[in-house]
Amino acid sequence: VLFVSGKEELPRAQGSAFLSDVRVMDGLDMKKPAEAARAFGRTAAIAGLETMNRAQHAAFAALFGEENLRSGWPILDRAALIKSPAEIEIMRACAKIADIGELAMVRAARIGVRDYELAAEINAAMLAAGADDNFQMTSAGKMLSCLHIPGNAVLEKGDFVIAEITPFQGSITYAAQRCTTVKVGRASD
Fold first, then answer.
1. Cβ atoms 10, 25 nearer than 8 A
2. Which stretch of DSSP H or E encloses residue 115?
3. Mean pLDDT score of the chain, rounded to an integer?
4. Residues 121, 104: contact at Cβ < 8 Å?
5. How many of the other CB atoms lie within 10 Å of CB of 104?
6. Which among 42, 96, 109, 167 is most buried, taking Cβ atoms within 10 Å?
7. CA dist list (Å): 119 to 46, 99, 172
8. Would you say residue 82 has pLDDT above 90?
9. Through-space distance between the first and last CA atoms of the chain, rounded to whole angstroms
10. Which of the residue ranges 57-66, 71-80, 94-103 would you say has the lowest mean pLDDT?
11. Count of CB atoms within 10 A of residue 136's CB?
């Protein structure tokens, strides 16, 4: 049984999950997920057990007993190591899209371009290449100590542009991340 957090997630989950039983949660109420889990056994392994609030934790503890609750992260970590051919293909496609995003960055990093325009060029290129979305941070300047949200700064000769681009398809689980630095203008010897 797969529980999703809202009605808007239902079609995507039904279309991509290998499970036929996909249900919508009622807000953050864990009673229904706990009841569904109890039908499968006496122990519950929950990814995020450590971050549940008191009421959420109590819903599982009432059905399983505190002693039968376990962290589900080790199970997910092991499962994530094994990729199906379809998952590998999605990740390869995302890597090609990341290459396109990096090339767009190199082409768009020109004197006079605003950093938000640069970020938009990178994003547009990857969406056009087939990304469903892109997690991106882009920063520009002479001295960069961290990435930040692009703003209205104008690129100048000698600026560095640092970008972390992460196009994905389906979900962030299937992504390829590229971190790149480009110099605006001609590089010195």
1. no
2. helix 115-128
3. 88
4. yes
5. 22
6. 167
7. 37, 15, 19
8. no
9. 60
10. 71-80
11. 20
